[in-house]
């Protein structure tokens, strides 16, 4: 394999989360040239990304501006045409599309590639998702299903590239520009040689932001009781959050909000001993720098999916039945912001800075605490530490093992499950296997037994309907039925036997998952 394309029309955090994929592709295909297809708004991170040989940039901001101003109706079309022509110029052995949007599907369809994974589009413009991992990532975008996902996005990206995770954190390369800035910043503020804790105040969405007053309380306690200095991080548009936090502090923190570009931010975060962060890109900078992060899971923050990728990070999840909430929810009373108390965050910081000795459930009242590590298979996993229900944890681990084992072929023993609901589903998918096998046999007969095939088709349709109904009735089965529906949507071909074989594979996958769950 000599030419690989990575389509990532995504944000900073998503681009950082592709670095283990690129690393694994390098190891699996030495000497290959890797081309990244990215959006102009996030090009600032490219100097930090290792392993990328070439980039093709979508000037989305320019196109949007041309459309908004309307000065030249042809201008946005011509710029998009120029970008598409660049996509069409090359020929690739593998295209990996990590972006789950219809626009990226169109772009993927423009790329000539012998093999592609992730979402693409067929000749009619309909979406086409080829691999199981691609179908998996798209299936749990449903808000009601996302909470059941136990596999980190980094590992899913890596498996999209058809390479295994290697059990190592995301990685970035510090630049000379960034390092010079960090040295100068520390010197200017008298921080050289001191132990630092970063506080990331903002996030891309207001629903994920911990109150500035709480950051002030944690800053004061960290400085007073642990003898550290605190630095405030954030984008220029988050300056108001810094002003609110500083006004509420007794001991002032050092304000770096709005002062750093991407390169400078990474180097400065790398000088910290820990980072307290909302669910946003700075958290991934900390993970890449090997700095332990305390992730505040406010609103729709799913730490198992998008949490910091590396060992030793902590996730603080409000112990509320509604947490994490769906992305689409407009909450009139976001109690999760106050459920994570400054006391709990201080205890988490103390844990990553000085160890967990003496800490107990009472130190994290109202909060579930989890710590990240790498499992023996190289995937990231999270283990409950405080205020965690053991039965819930067991179910999460089973889901994690089930999906990986089913997709990677490592599942052992797919006998009938003990749970009554799962056993019913297991039996139902078994009927689907038998019915599709009968259709395969009938499709080989000459002449074609039309009436028999019609009868079998009606039977299979009834099984399909019952499978979907079980997903509606039983929440934990919803991810499985949603995934099987997506598999069905991506069945290709016109020959009856080929379609029946793919449908049988669908039921075999469902039966395997039911046995493992």
UniProtKB/TrEMBL annotation:
Pfam families: Glyco_transf_9
Xref: InterPro entries: Glyco_trans_9 (IPR002201), LPS_LOS_Heptosyltrfase (IPR051199)
PANTHER family: ADP-HEPTOSE--LPS HEPTOSYLTRANSFERASE 2, TETRAACYLDISACCHARIDE 4'-KINASE-RELATED
Keyword entries, A-Z: Glycosyltransferase, Transferase
Record protein name field: Heptosyltransferase
GO terms (BP aspect): lipopolysaccharide core region biosynthetic process
Top-level taxon of origin: Bacteria
Gene3D superfamilies: Glycogen Phosphorylase B
CDD domains per UniProt: GT9_LPS_heptosyltransferase (cd03789)
One Gene Ontology molecular-function label: ADP-heptose-lipopolysaccharide heptosyltransferase activity
Cell membrane in keyword set: no
Gene Ontology cellular-component terms listed: cytosol
Coiled-coil blocks: none
Native species: Geobacter soli
